[in-house]
Amino acid sequence: MTTLTDRPYxxxxxxxxxxxxxxxxxxxxxxxxxxxxxxxxxxxxxVPVVWVQHSSEELAFGSAGWEYVPxxxxxxxxxxxxKKYGDSFEDTELExxxxxxxxxxxxxAGAQTDFCIRSTLHGALARGYDATLVGDAHTTEDLSxxxxxxxxxxxxxxxxxxxxxxxxxxxxxxxxxxxxxxGVSSSAPx
Length: 190
Hints:
Layout: E1 9-15, H1 19-23, H2 28-44, E2 49-54, E3 80-83, H3 94-100, E4 103-111, H4 113-126, E5 130-139, H5 151-163, E6 172-175
Parallel strand pairs: 1-2, 1-4, 2-3, 4-5, 5-6
């Protein structure tokens, strides 16, 4: 029910599942396995997989830590969006890429829950997209030493509030990886 009426398709958005990001994240093996299964499901259903890769002073562009985890391999034909801000839309080619693919619904997975995942979900909804969070396919690091809740609490709270998020003409929600059904979208643009 996106407000982007000329965009009937769905895409899987894989956000920042990079070596250094996942090294400090909780349950990273399980999350990577969930993301890998989502990528396979999307590809089998001819649903675009769009990869997002963050860089910063701490995560230098081109470094080993900046690379995607080895369990996830992007196909050359799949878009790769480079970003420097939490919101994957901010100062990137994401909006243009999704417009070219006629995508109005995003299924979002990756890291970090309390930064790039939340920012991207809100950025998508504010721009008119339907945005679904995969509840067992995102993670974060433990920032409790700086006053943040435990990672499990951050993840659970994000799943709860995104499942209850609403906006006029748009849908949001949280689902488990095994409940994601991309269906078959053989007419999606290449």
